[in-house]
């Protein structure tokens, strides 16, 4: 497939992950410009395609907002839902956050309203804080996580500590954004070819389909893909991953 489409994949560690320098002031915008700076230093050229999954999709939204002129395309795979977006109907956002177990709801509320307390909240023992992955992953998700997220890999990712490597991700993704997805403009025209894709896994226990449908209804230039019988880790299923890449390269 790589040979067929003449592409290559560039994976990078966001600030604080792996060996990347930490940024105590990380935001959606700083992560976006980190991508542009990396692309320039690696001389990728004037345009590139960005792909993000789950929480890692928030910088893709940032690219569509802040550096749309640098994109040849974008793929949002089971993208996060920020429950404090201002232009999404509140009843949809309420339903979306209630899809999550209460302990996970509290993590995101603390990250949004009191980010300076997030480390304490994640490590405290006073209040119930059950983060059983079985409550947010399907059985197949759990199988895939054991394959792709082994302890040695996660230790390398979190070598700078949980707060820098993980919790700042949550704070950046679920903080106050300067825009809502429904305010985005189509970066592509008849003379500027490219496409944006959003992928929804219908067995996903974390992401409410109705919110993604609402966004795509407001932004009809986003191509919406619904995939049945697959959970949150859709990108780790070989045939689904190939479908995601082929759509990005051919549409």
Automatic annotation (TrEMBL):
- Domain AB hydrolase-1: residue ranges: 10-240
Q: Which domain of life is it from?
A: Eukaryota
Q: Which Gene3D superfamilies match?
A: alpha/beta hydrolase
SUPFAM superfamilies according to UniProt:
alpha/beta-Hydrolases
Name of the protein described by the UniProt record: AB hydrolase-1 domain-containing protein
Q: Which organism is it from?
A: Brassica carinata (Ethiopian mustard)
Specify the taxonomic lineage. Eukaryota, Viridiplantae, Streptophyta, Embryophyta, Tracheophyta
């Amino acid at each position: 497939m790589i040979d067929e489409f003449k592409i290559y994949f560039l994976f990078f560690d966001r600030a604080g992950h792996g060996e990347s320098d930490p940024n105590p002031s990380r935001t959606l915008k700083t992560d976006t410009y980190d991508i542009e700076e990396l692309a320039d230093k690696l001389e990728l050229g004037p345009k590139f395609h960005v792909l993000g999954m789950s929480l890692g999709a928030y910088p893709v939204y940032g690219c569509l907002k802040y550096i749309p002129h640098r994109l040849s395309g974008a793929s949002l795979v089971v993208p996060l839902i920020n429950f404090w977006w201002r232009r999404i109907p509140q009843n949809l956002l309420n339903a979306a956050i209630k899809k999550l177990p209460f302990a996970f709801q509290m993590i995101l509320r603390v990250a949004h309203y009191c980010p300076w307390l997030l480390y304490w909240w994640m490590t405290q023992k006073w209040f119930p804080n059950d983060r059983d992955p079985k409550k947010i992953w399907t059985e197949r998700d759990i199988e895939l996580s054991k394959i792709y997220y082994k302890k040695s890999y996660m230790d390398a990712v979190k070598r700078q500590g949980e707060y820098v490597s993980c919790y700042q991700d949550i704070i950046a993704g679920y903080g106050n954004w300067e825009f809502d997805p429904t305010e985005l403009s189509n970066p592509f025209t008849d003379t500027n070819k490219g496409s944006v894709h959003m992928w929804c896994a219908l067995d996903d226990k974390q992401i409410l389909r109705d919110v993604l449908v609402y966004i795509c209804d407001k932004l009809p230039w986003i191509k919406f893909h619904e995939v049945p019988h697959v959970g949150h880790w859709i990108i780790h299923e070989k045939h689904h991953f190939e479908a995601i890449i082929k759509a990005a390269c051919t549409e």
